[in-house]
Amino acid sequence: MRLSTNMIFDQQVRGITDSQSSWLKVGEQLSSGRRVNNPSDDPIAASRAVVLSQSQAKSTQYATARSFADQSLSMEENALKGATSSIQDAQTLIVYGSTGTLSDDDRASIATQLEGIRAQLLNQANSQDGNGRYIFAGYKTDTAPFTDTAGTGVSYVGGDQAITQKVDDGRTMDVSSTGSSVFMSITSNAKAEPDGTASETNVFNMLDSAIAALKVPQDNADDATKQTFQDAMDKTNRGLSNSLNNVLTVRSAVGTQLSELDTLNAQGDDRDTIMTSQMSDLVDVDYTSAISSYTMQQTALQASYKTFTDMSKMSLFQLNS
């Protein structure tokens, strides 16, 4: 087969172009820090990197969801802590107010203090987060979940369903409790009423009953009136004990969820570290190998330039030109 001068020339130019392309490709890898900059660089690694990237994005979304869940549950825990303190303060006053040596003025003073605690507890039940959303309103976060109406007392008008958040692939949890489950409920092991009547579940009704009883004069009252007063105070005391136990149960559940979020965050961090390592193995450049290849490609390119230069000085090329 006879090779024309033009064919030899084209081969040399193509050799230079190929060497230059290989050299520039390695140079791009070194400058970007990535072995796979285009799918054509390594189709298999590129496709696996796409799938892994989607997993990393999902992990980031769950991490954000857990952050929001942690904030919501922490706000709830703070409100429940305040409610616990308020109920305990009310219990102390109820016990003290039941003392037979107190005067009507003393009992009236205790009633006033209980009214203050009631208002404080109502404010805690209508707590809002930093964005103005009501914590214990379920999904009705735009309106106060508890209303206080003269004659009927405090009632719950919030949502019946707790807000849920998916915090990991296989885990969805409640990130807020409804007000009815906190301030209008008691646990299954609550203290029963001695006469077998239904236990009071509304903590505000409990306080209203005691406040009303404390305002009834007892100094010169007959035995029936005094007994009615004592029964009311005893019932409120049992009710507050039940209500406190319920609030503490909710707090315990919130604490467990916060602990679980910490565990999920730790697992998520470990998973992210593994995926980052896997992604690095797939697409990141091995600098030692790349630098060696860069040097080799540069040497090959220089050799191609020299070969082309030497051949261009041959008589056939000179005559052809």
Nutshell version of this structure?
The chain is mainly α and 321 residues long.
User: Mind describing the biggest β-sheet?
Assistant: 2 strands, antiparallel
Fraction of residues in helix: 55-70%
Order of helices and strands: HHHEEEEHHHHH
CATH C-level class of one domain: Mainly Alpha
Strand % is 5-15%
What is the number of beta strands? 4
Q: Which CATH-level-2 architecture of one domain?
A: Up-down Bundle
CATH homologous superfamily title of one domain? f41 fragment of flagellin, N-terminal domain
**Structure classification:** mainly alpha
- The first-to-last residue Cα distance is 23 Å
Low-confidence stretches: none
How would you describe this protein?
The chain has 321 residues and is mainly alpha-helical. The protein has a domain at 77-251: Up-down Bundle (f41 fragment of flagellin, N-terminal domain). It is 67% helix and 5% strand. It is built from eight helices and four strands; from the N terminus they run H-H-H-E-E-E-E-H-H-H-H-H. It has helices at 5-32, 43-97, 104-125, 179-183, 203-214, 223-283, 287-312, 315-320; strands at residues 146-149, 153-156, 164-168, 171-174. The strands form two sheets. Strands 1-2 form a two-stranded antiparallel ribbon. It has a two-stranded antiparallel ribbon with strand order 3-4. Strand 3 and strand 4 form a beta hairpin. The longest helix is centred in the last third of the chain and has 61 residues, at 223-283. Belongs to the bacterial flagellin family. Pfam families: Flagellin_N. InterPro entries: Flagell_FlgL, Flagellin, Flagellin_N.
